[in-house]
Design brief:
The chain is an alpha/beta fold. Helix content is 46%, strand content 11%. It contains eleven helices and seven strands. α1 crosses α2 and α9 packs across α10.
Length: 297
């Protein structure tokens, strides 16, 4: 079977949870259906917005299963795997692939510092544990390491390492990646800060927490940029920017979950020690979502 190409808007799905921390399966299935009907191009369970580092293995497994079942092969599902150890990541990747996903998003949280040799060895081992396409993910704000261009050049030798989501926000580094690797590793934008720039230099899409609550607006930005209507695309990103500011101030998962609750999806609160938005945060978020057209005015 030929692998589906990944491009466009891939919402980072929230993980709906009860107060006891158990997966709320029907709200998840309803959210998947809603996003597909809105026109998203793929789905990513267990990304940053999905709180993967906080979840036990059974919850993560069921999160992927419900997403795959609800998507019903209408859009690709690229599921996150998140393990500090290389053996643990290899096992999680292999088990996740068996659940019917179209690809793996490989995340490595860390505690001790890591060098390029260790980073390359880890992701190479993960890639070789599966046959599906692998998307590398880096977010140095939450890690003790980051991909260097040299490390990515080595990892590009692995046939199924095909995509990179870089959340460094370092536009100079992104330019170096593109000019060094060309389209050998295709680039997805990070959550909110540089999608327009990534599209301008040839990025194929946007793996996005905000797309859970503003799917139509995210798709409009992507499609406008893809058509080369750059001034219109810039205006769209500027309009969405206050949402990114709110994420930075109040935390990503709390904002996305609160926004979905406002839209009628009972996804619950973030996993402790994270907290719900306080009343001030909810008021600020509600105004932003109204202004951007994601809630009735």
């Amino acid at each position: 079977m030929v692998a589906k190409a990944f491009k466009g808007i891939f919402p980072y799905l929230v993980t709906p949870l009860t107060e006891a921390g158990r997966l709320k399966e029907q709200p998840l299935a309803d959210l998947v259906e809603h996003l597909i009907r809105k026109g998203v191009h793929g789905l990513t369970p267990l990304g940053s917005t999905g709180e993967a580092p906080y979840l036990d293995r059974e919850t993560k497994r069921r999160m992927v299963e419900v997403t795959v079942q609800a998507a019903a092969e209408r859009v690709p599902v690229v599921a996150g795997i998140c393990s500090m150890s290389t053996p643990g990541a290899m096992q999680e990747a292999a088990e996740t692939e068996k659940l019917g996903v179209d690809g793996i998003l490989a995340v490595m949280p860390s505690y001790f510092p890591l060098n390029d040799r260790q980073v390359v060895a880890h992701f190479r081992a993960v890639a070789r544990a599966v046959a599906c396409p692998v998307t590398l993910y880096t977010n140095p704000k939450f890690q003790t390491w980051d991909f260097s261009v040299d490390a990515l050049r080595e990892l590009a030798e692995e046939p199924n390492i095909q995509y990179l989501k870089d959340a460094s926000g370092n536009v100079g580094k992104l330019m170096s990646i593109v000019t060094t690797l060309g389209d050998r590793i295709k680039l997805f934008s990070d959550t909110s800060s540089v999608p327009l720039f990534v599209f301008l230099i040839g990025g194929v899409g946007w793996m996005s927490g905000p797309a859970c609550v503003i799917p139509e607006q995210s798709i409009a930005l992507y499609e406008t940029a893809r058509q080369g209507r750059w001034e219109e695309a810039a205006a769209l990103q500027k309009k969405q920017w206050p949402l990114n500011v709110a994420f930075q101030r109040y935390s990503l998962s709390a904002c996305v979950k609160a926004g979905l609750e406002m839209q009628g999806f009972p996804v619950g609160s973030p996993m402790p020690p994270q907290k719900q938005l306080d009343p001030e945060g909810r008021r600020a978020l509600e105004k932003i979502l109204r202004d951007v057209g994601a809630l009735p005015s």
